[in-house]
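Table S2 (continued). Query chain:
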Amino acid sequence: MGESNGRQAGRRTSRRDIYLRLRQMVLTLELAPGAALSENELAAELGVSRTPVRESLIMLAQEGLVQVFPKIGSFVSRVDPAQVADAQFLREAVELASLDDLPEQLDPAVVGELRDNLTRQRRTDLGLEEFFALDEAFHQGLMKLSGHGNVWTTVAAAKGHLDRARRLGLHEKVSPAALADQHHAIFDAIVDGNLASARTAMRAHLRAVFSDIERIRAHSPELFASGDSTVPVRRNVVVWE
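Corresponding output:
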């Protein structure tokens, strides 16, 4: 009985791991918006059977990150500007609210973590995903300052389309230095106790993704949902080499 339970726990862990791996591949654009998905190829690449892959694709479809068309196949969802706007609205509301809840005395340990994070953002050898991770940690750190760091998990789970749009924007930037400058401006305003400036800087920073979308959609419309119900064609979609 115990051995059977162990095997079942192992299968559950494996399926969860496959789901998380595929979700990360979608969010990091390793699986590009609009790309056709083959259960056989993904199973071979991940070294598993088709079953956990199929189950993971269903879960991703429920999140809106994958679309399944009967008798045609599964595809990575194109970035949906409407869902980006919804996620950005949620994120902005939560992060601005956290600024309103900052204590008079900031936690020096968290302040130190944020200073270190900002220093690392300035490294010239950072890869896109390294900077993205620092960006995420910075914003979660700001929420920790207000005592609401755990809320970040809920925010992160809701912003799949937003994160893909942000990564598309990063792909086009020669350097993320401008984003690092914005982070510094937000942090400095908080440390100086200038809440109004912090809110203004945060709002502008978070809304910059909309400009990225319009710029990228102008030359790569195939990466974005158009709002129609056109059934996709199975073809390879390349984001960037």
